[in-house]
Amino acid sequence: MLKHILCCALVTVVCAGCISVSTEDLKVAGKSERKQTGKMLRHVVLFRFKEDAAPEKIKEVENAFASLPDKIDAIERFEWGTNVSPEDRAEGFTHCFVLSFLNEHDRDAYIVHPDHQALRQTSGPVIDKILVLDYWPTHHTNGG
């Protein structure tokens, strides 16, 4: 009987601990699960700089963009690079920035964030054209 009571008490304590999981814990768990499945919204930004853009101004834009993940929590992943394709099909676009978000809400929060708006002000004078694409990744595997 004592074993039964102790067992019930232990189950009650464990269940109480499970029930007290915060919404922040659930959010973190959701992020972890989403990261494992790779189902994050991708936001791809391509820049074509003006022909007369000074290299130091281009570097300023690169640094400003690269600093956004430290300033905007909604950004889950970030990477960028410059074109190295031998295919000569970039149409003058030289810089690619890829940001990943858990959902559209986070992407939308990023778009209106003051630090993103500041980047737009910094880059505006030296950018000739911007191309932006958002997509949900679709994974295909080879059969076999």
Compact summary:
By secondary structure, this protein is of the alpha+beta class.
Considering the chains and any ligands shown, give keywords for the structure.
144 residues, four-stranded antiparallel beta sheet, 6 helices, 4 strands, disordered N terminus
What does this protein look like?
- The protein has a four-stranded antiparallel β-sheet.
- The model is unreliable at 1-34 (pLDDT under 50).
- It has helices at 2-19, 23-37, 55-66, 68-71, 104-112, 114-123, and strands at 41-49, 77-82, 95-101, 127-135.
- Helix 3 packs antiparallel against helix 6 (114-123).
- It has two domains: 1-37; 40-135, Alpha-Beta Plaits (2-Layer Sandwich), CATH 3.30.70.100.
- The chain contains six helices and four strands.
- The protein is of the alpha+beta class and 144 residues long.
- It is 47% helix and 22% strand.
- The termini are far apart.
Q: How do the strands and helices of this protein lay out in sequence?
A:
Elements: H1 2-19, H2 23-37, E1 41-49, H3 55-66, H4 68-71, E2 77-82, E3 95-101, H5 104-112, H6 114-123, E4 127-135
Antiparallel strand pairs: 1-3, 1-4, 2-3
Helix pairs in contact: 3-6
Name the shape in a single word: flat
Count of discrete alpha- or pi-helical segments spanning 4 or more residues: 6
Tally of domains: 2
Biggest sheet record: 4 strands, antiparallel
* CATH overall fold name of the largest domain: Alpha-Beta Plaits
- Mean pLDDT equals 81
CATH architecture of the largest domain: 2-Layer Sandwich
Strand-and-helix sequence, N→C?
HHEHHEEHHE
| Biggest sheet: strand arrangement | 2-3-1-4
